[in-house]
Amino acid sequence: MSLLHDLAITPEVFSSAGYSTPERSNDCLLQLEPLLLQEAIIRNLSGGRWKDHLEENLADCSLAGQKLLKAMAPRLRSFETITYDDPQSPDEWCWEALAGHQREALDGIVVGHESALRHGSDGLVCAAERVHEANWWQKRTCSVTLSRRTHDYSKEIERLLRYAKSAAFIDPYIDPTLERYAEFHKLLGICRRRETTLWLSIHRCGYRGTGTERHTLTECEARQIFRPLAEKLNHPDMRVRVEVFIWAGFHDRFLITDLLGLSVPYGFDIDACGEERPTRWTRLSREDSDGVLREFDENNPLHGFKFKFVLEP
Q1: Do the beta carbons of residue 254 and residue 293 sit within 8 Å?
Q2: What is the model's pTM?
Q3: Whether pLDDT at 273 is above 80
Q4: Cα 50 to Cα 88: distance, rounded to the nearest angstrom
Q5: H/E segment holding residue 171
Q6: E strands along 86-154, which residues?
């Protein structure tokens, strides 16, 4: 299971009427909040009608439901209409989510208490007040073990690069002219499936080589290092804008997006010799992700900002 979960939630979950007793609503929404705000994207079902429906019926939502809806807004992903243009009943919303699952697999569908009794037999659909019993909830993890292959990297970050608004690849040695980074462009190729442009930054150290062969990069040399990547990204369907930041030096590797942050100890190179040694990626808290971004703000002296440039073909 991906570290970023793809979920559908029926509108009744945000109302006290969606629970076995109204008093359970607030506690259940508080339990869901960390998942929805740090670990998931939420489908805006029926071509965006889901969000409109909730806003039109906001008075039916509990205060906790209204607060959570507002906080969730940046994590909504539009999803096409499959069965119902304008679902109204809890059953219709659940059927629409299930139809969307057939089109593109979901990790889970969260519904109200009564709806779960009617639809919750397959393990995908669960009541908000019993979400801790769902298979997908119990399989949640903060880390994943991957082989150092482009295929494994792509599978893990596909949702991030398709639905994030911004992303930062932080790897001190990223160098598309080297064999072990030669497939890096394939990761960014995920952006061809986006509907909007991703604002992406790449951060690397400002030197090349080791020992007596180590030397500081000029801006011209840095641009040459990334020219192969620029050429690969020169495609009319590529919805990404890339800016490269060069720093005096740093060590840790990350992928930070507005949806989720990852610690990636080996960075984004691959085992070019085919050994397929494992690496473990770990999800960061929102606070740690924000802290990493502050470290790599050009006005922060911590890593010694040198220069930046936009990647152009």
Answers
A1: no
A2: 0.94
A3: no
A4: 10
A5: none
A6: 108-111, 125-127, 143-147
